[in-house]
Amino acid sequence: MKKLLALTAISLPALIAGASQRLVPVSTFNTQIIIGVDSAAAPSLVYYGPAVRGDLRQAALAALQGERQAAYPVYGNYPEGESALSVTMPDGNMTLDLIPAGEPKTECDHNGNSLTTIPLADRHYPVSVTLNYLAYPKEDVIETWADITNNGKKPVTMTRFESGTLPFRSDNAWMTSLYGTWANEGRVNNERLTPGMKVIQNKDGVRNSHTSHAEVFLSLDGKPAETSGRVIGAALLYGGNYRLRTVTDDHGGHRFFAGIHPDESAWKLMPGETFSTPRLALTYSANGMGEASRNFHRWGRNYHLAHGTEVNPILLNSWEGVYFNIDEPKMAAMMQDIADMGGELFVMDDGWFGRRDDDSSSLGDWEVDTRKLPHGIKGLTDEARRRGVKFGIWVEPEMTNSNSRLYREHPDWVIKAANRDIVEGRGGTQLVLDLSNPKVQDFIVNMVDTLLTNNPEIAYVKWDANAPVMQHGSQYLPADRQSELSIRFHRGLTSVMERIRAAHPDVAIQACASGGGRANYGILDNFDEFWVSDNTDAFQRLGAQWGLSYFFPAMAMGSHISAVPNHTTFRIVPLKFRCDVAMTGRLGMEIQPRDMSAQERDFCKGAIGAYKGFRDVVQLGDLYRLVSPFDNRGAVSLMYVSPDKQKGVFYWFRTNNDYSAPLASRPAMQGLDPEASYKVTEVNRIDLTPLPYEGEVFTGRFLMDNGLEMRTSHDLEWGKKTDYCSRVLLLEKQ
């Protein structure tokens, strides 16, 4: 497990509850899962909630009105219920009957993280299952997964193998989930759970977070709220096809399941083989969704983002500035421009290799196009060094084009079904490489390793993936293992990324997949950040970044200042508004600076300089969402506070410009030290006159009780007024 160090056995507390059941606690500082282990039956999940202080039997006696809820239900006896695991034995038996097969055990690392394992085995067949619970006490997150082992002499076929399940009871439970599409990622859906089954799934094969997300909030006290109510957060750590199910009965009982999507994914478990499901991360909050998000953010930064405790650089990406029209003079000029504005990194996007003048050719042909770059990548890294910025580069290693040398030489390396015409994607020629094939994995690793080894000054890689799996079929896997393609593809990708990370641990890597198609912690273990959306329109980014903030920290979200009219929406948004929105995430630019006026470049230079002064608060601090873009209150507001409460950054954006429309213009702040005093300074100010409280000092208690009234339009000369308004306030403890 990433960043989980060597474990040392410690004693496991257990109490008797009834005649034979022992209670096994899995604890964080503030929360607890309690598993009931009975020598004659499958374990039950008796409690999840605030940490029980004292006698654990209190939770067992009160939980679920005494109903026994299996911790990991299997298909077998009483098959009418939903299950997390189903198998077919060599003799055709489709049932499982699991009982404990040894003592539960807990081990702890030097960070205080604890792994509890509960071994189980079938009463008759040689199949065993180990339930795993990894607790992160300081983050209040618990990961759970199952290890399924075939101890027999013949293959066993698994047809369903989910990561975990969670029973809960509420007569007014709601689910919060994310959905969207290309250029419209991160939309928020809140719905009450009613009798029946709610399913969230993705079967794209490559990009699993455009249309749906493998993360949800379950609110137990009615409609979801930011600061109140009991909330369970769940995030499946898997970059492939998944399915989340919530089953609700007519008596207020619910059960949540999450795992690999079972469709066309049967797995042949060979003798002696162990299959580990992806991990399911759970967090619990008694204080609404905001606290649950902050738990996920701390856990994500500390354990599931590369370099997650370091601030990310401010960059300029070439894509929206020049698209495929790359050449040395343009790249050198853009490097100088971002350096002059105070940026730290220049990223050359698509178009530098093969004969890549559009999206119809050359993926897989990773030699430099000397027509455009006669001095190669080294010429560019030398230019970057001379200008005082780092250099980054775009790649799309999992893909090829039918119009490429790679495909002509290795047509058997692409995903394709036997006896079917090949299906092509983007540009009419794009194909997905078969990462279940070790030769393909080696090709990708060698390509990226050669690029980075030969050009050691490359500091950043934008790793893209712009096509789904368009046809199910592996030319590498045998006929009886075709159903394993999707899982083996993502195992191959994980292996590739782990090998590259081991060889180049200091290189930052962004997960891009047609925009925000890979915002998932199962992918992000080996990445520093993800690209939120190809839609860089600041107005729409407010919603996308808000939704994604439910589960992902700001440092993981590439958020760029782009040109107007925006290349996706054609909306014309003032530069200050664009800068202010970009400063709520990992600030960057997606623009051709030579198309900007000197005044605009100067403004961006000032914004970049200001952001450098508080980016640690945004990227490493605690997020408080104040006014949602999805609540139609005419404004959006959020803020970040440093963990030590020394500094805060408050954002406010007007989103309803109808004259005299109701407007949330005075949101109460959150997260400050109530006894401390904070000086208020506006950042990126364009008004002719300052805000009335500019430079004034307020107590944290006053700001959290009352907020500050936002001036809802900018005080500008008549000809410079627009219908947009945004405010960024820096709060510094005095």
Kindly, what is the distance between the CA atoms of the first and last residues, rounded to a whole number of angstroms? Answer: 42 Å
Mean pLDDT: 95
CATH third-level topology of the domain at 8-303: Beta-galactosidase, Chain A, domain 5
Oligomer: single chain
Q: Uncertain segments of ≥5 residues (pLDDT<50)?
A: 1-19
List how many beta strands DSSP finds.
Answer: 38
CATH architecture of the domain at 8-303: Distorted Sandwich
Give the name of the CATH superfamily of the domain at 8-303.
alpha-galactosidase from lactobacil brevis
Inertia-based shape = globular
**Helix count?**
13
CATH class of the domain at 8-303: Mainly Beta
Helix-residue proportion:
10-25%
Classify the secondary structure makeup into a structural class.
alpha+beta
Q: Mind describing the biggest β-sheet?
A: 12 strands, antiparallel
Strand composition percent: 25-35%
Please state the CA-atom Rg, rounded to the nearest Å.
Answer: 27 Å
Brief write-up:
The chain has 734 residues and is of the alpha+beta class. Helix content is 20%, strand content 31%. Among the domains are: 8-303, Beta-galactosidase, Chain A, domain 5 (Distorted Sandwich), CATH 2.70.98.60; 624-733, Golgi alpha-mannosidase II (Immunoglobulin-like, Sandwich), CATH 2.60.40.1180.
SSE diagram, text form:
Elements: E1 8-10, E2 15-17, E3 21-27, E4 31-38, E5 41-50, H1 57-62, E6 85-88, E7 98-100, E8 105-108, E9 114-122, E10 127-136, E11 141-150, E12 156-169, E13 174-179, E14 187-192, E15 196-202, E16 212-219, E17 231-237, E18 242-248, E19 253-260, E20 267-269, E21 274-276, E22 279-285, H2 288-303, E23 315-317, H3 319-322, H4 328-340, E24 345-348, H5 376-387, E25 390-395, E26 399-401, H6 405-409, E27 430-432, H7 438-454, E28 458-463, H8 485-503, E29 508-511, H9 521-524, E30 529-531, H10 538-548, E31 557-562, H11 575-582, E32 586-590, H12 598-620, E33 622-627, E34 635-641, E35 647-654, E36 677-683, E37 697-699, H13 700-706, E38 726-733
Parallel strand pairs: 23-24, 23-32, 24-25, 25-28, 28-29, 29-30, 30-31, 31-32
Antiparallel strand pairs: 1-8, 2-3, 3-4, 4-5, 6-12, 7-9, 8-9, 9-10, 10-11, 11-21, 11-22, 12-19, 12-20, 13-14, 13-16, 15-18, 16-17, 17-22, 18-19, 26-27, 33-34, 34-35, 35-38, 36-37, 36-38
Helix pairs in contact: 4-5, 7-8, 10-11, 11-12
